[in-house]
């Protein structure tokens, strides 16, 4: 994305005959650890959301509030992430990152005292979601600025840390609930999340840690970068800019004129709604089957382990072989249509665990490959395409997840909620199938 290189220019800066380049290590390792903690704490507790708040929603006489909270959380995350990317063009990593960490922790603190669903929507959904959304572009931006040659290896390490958190948090939350109860568990999670302040504090400007290149590069070579002089707009100019104007200035809407890109955008968005809502609602479904907290936590954990195995296998396979990311994503989405329905066909524990493992294996096709699918739809304009994806997915989640909650209210069963998730995936399958047929005829 553009903001990932907002503090760097792809030209060369010479110092004593040698170019200044990112450290590709050094302080960058601390940045890498900070990024790892950000995703561990952000994604880990979110994956245990259904387990953590199950009894809370039961006390509220229904679980329809869960998709509402999740929808608002991801909507706020997406919109704040987009605005954060814009802010990084004007402010430092730490300024933006500490704002995000502060919002995230404030959401934690306020969540400890919630007694109603609408309060949880505001504290966890809006404030905490926006805080995490702000930190995501900061983390990616800082990481990309500090690493060049070691970028893939370091990002793999971060992904592993995030996956480990997804595996361990459900069991950890189950243990804490049993030992300390609901409110104290929320307080302990808040205490752990305080580490995000330190994670954002290590996001130094890369200019402070540039090193001299060992090779003298000629003008025009890549390994070398130039510090871009950042100009801060006047206070009057900043106030004058409305949110609508900011979005208009930073979103290239002409991409929507391309039917193939529009099909990709809509398909990815609906697939994301299904994936995110499934992760939140599966624990609630299992509780409705009469499973214990430990059984539910174990089921969520094995799904996360399957996801980690799939990510590792995909990384190894794609190292040796070239794959069509769009076809893999499409195939995974087709399987997901079936898996969402299969999960509500039987409450037998062996069957549910099997479906969860398969879903974990398939899920990596959505989570890992979506940037590669997006870049094939707009190869020369990926930053603009990503911005549109963030905005569309955010607003779609704000609409679709509450509607799924209304389905539960109307039917009193999770059966039709999971059918709705399958329909979301089906939108992607149908759109891309039509696109394939239409453009195949045009090229033949």
From TrEMBL:
The chain crosses the membrane at residues 27-53, 65-84, 96-114, 120-147, 159-178, 184-203, 261-280, 300-321, 386-407, 413-439. Keywords: Membrane, Transmembrane, Transmembrane helix. InterPro entries: MFS, MFS_trans_sf, Proton-linked_MCT. It comes from the Eukaryota. This is Monocarboxylate transporter. It comes from Iphiclides podalirius.
């Amino acid at each position: 994305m553009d903001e990932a290189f907002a503090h760097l220019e792809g030209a060369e800066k010479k110092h004593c005959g040698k170019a200044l380049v990112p450290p590709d290590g050094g302080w960058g390792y601390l940045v890498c650890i900070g990024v790892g903690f950000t995703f561990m704490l952000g994604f880990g507790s979110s994956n245990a959301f259904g387990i953590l708040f199950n009894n809370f929603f039961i006390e509220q006489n229904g679980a329809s509030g869960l998709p509402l909270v999740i929808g608002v959380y991801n909507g706020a995350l997406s919109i704040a992430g987009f605005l954060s990317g814009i802010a990084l063009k004007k402010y430092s990593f730490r300024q933006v990152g500490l704002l995000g960490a502060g919002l995230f922790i404030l959401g934690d603190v306020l969540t400890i005292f919630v007694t109603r669903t609408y309060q949880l929507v505001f504290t966890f959904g809006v404030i905490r979601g926006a805080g995490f959304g702000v930190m995501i572009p900061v983390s990616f931006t800082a990481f990309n600025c500090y690493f060049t040659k070691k970028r893939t290896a370091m990002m793999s390490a971060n992904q592993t840390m995030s996956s480990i958190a997804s595996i361990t948090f459900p069991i950890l939350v189950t243990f804490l609930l049993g030992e300390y109860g609901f409110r104290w568990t929320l307080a302990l999670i808040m205490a752990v999340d305080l580490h995000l302040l330190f994670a954002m504090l290590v996001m130094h400007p890369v200019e402070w840690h540039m090193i001299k290149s060992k090779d003298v590069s000629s003008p025009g070579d890549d390994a070398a970068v130039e510090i871009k002089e950042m100009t801060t707009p006047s206070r009057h100019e900043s106030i004058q800019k409305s949110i609508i104007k900011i979005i208009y200035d930073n979103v290239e809407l002409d991409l929507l004129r391309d039917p193939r890109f529009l099909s990709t955008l809509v398909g990815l968005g609906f697939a994301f709604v299904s994936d995110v809502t499934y992760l939140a609602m599966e624990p609630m479904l299992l509780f409705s089957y009469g499973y214990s907290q430990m059984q539910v936590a174990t089921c969520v954990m094995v799904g996360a382990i399957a996801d980690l195995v799939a990510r590792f296998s995909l990384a190894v396979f794609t190292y040796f072989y070239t794959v069509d990311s769009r076809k893999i994503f499409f195939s995974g989405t087709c399987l997901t249509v079936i898996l969402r329905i299969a999960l509500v066909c039987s409450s037998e524990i062996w069957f549910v665990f099997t479906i969860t493992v398969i879903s974990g294996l398939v899920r990596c096709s959505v989570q890992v490959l979506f940037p590669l699918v997006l870049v094939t739809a707009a190869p020369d304009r990926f930053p603009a395409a990503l911005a549109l994806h963030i905005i569309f997915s955010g607003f779609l989640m704000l609409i679709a997840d509450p509607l799924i909650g209304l389905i539960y209210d109307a039917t009193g069963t999770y059966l039709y909620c999971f059918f709705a998730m399958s329909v979301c995936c089906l939108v992607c399958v149908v759109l891309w199938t039509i696109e394939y047929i239409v453009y195949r005829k045009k090229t033949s």
